[in-house]
Amino acid sequence: MNSEILKIAAQYLRWIFISFAVVALFRGHNHPGGGFIGGLLAGLAIVYRGFAYNAFQVKEKLSDRPEKYIATGLAAILLSFLPSFLLGKPLMTGVWVTLPLPFTDGLKLGTPFLFDTGVFFGVTGVTLMFIFSLTQKPQQ
Known about the structure:
2 strands, 140 residues, mainly alpha, two-stranded antiparallel sheet
């Protein structure tokens, strides 16, 4: 497409989509959202630029291939299983650690958030791979 309005909108909307993706990721287990919806929004943020310009340009400009996003996501998901396994608890049991921070009660980090982050990266990678395969030139 060769629309100047779409090109200008793509620059600004990308950051709005990424912001919403991060918010959806952090809402995670307490409200609807989490890694899946956040990953779809992050993938859409990257793909939207392809609608304005060209999917081939976006694919070339993307610093990492979609397979790296998928591998990072799977590694984070497997890493989230490790603490409960090492503590002798059933698999996927939530384990939390509180990091002390000044002027707060501390930052609570848990394995469910690590799992959601893995899903986030995996879904982002699959979304990108799907869209890039749709825009691929047919082989002759």
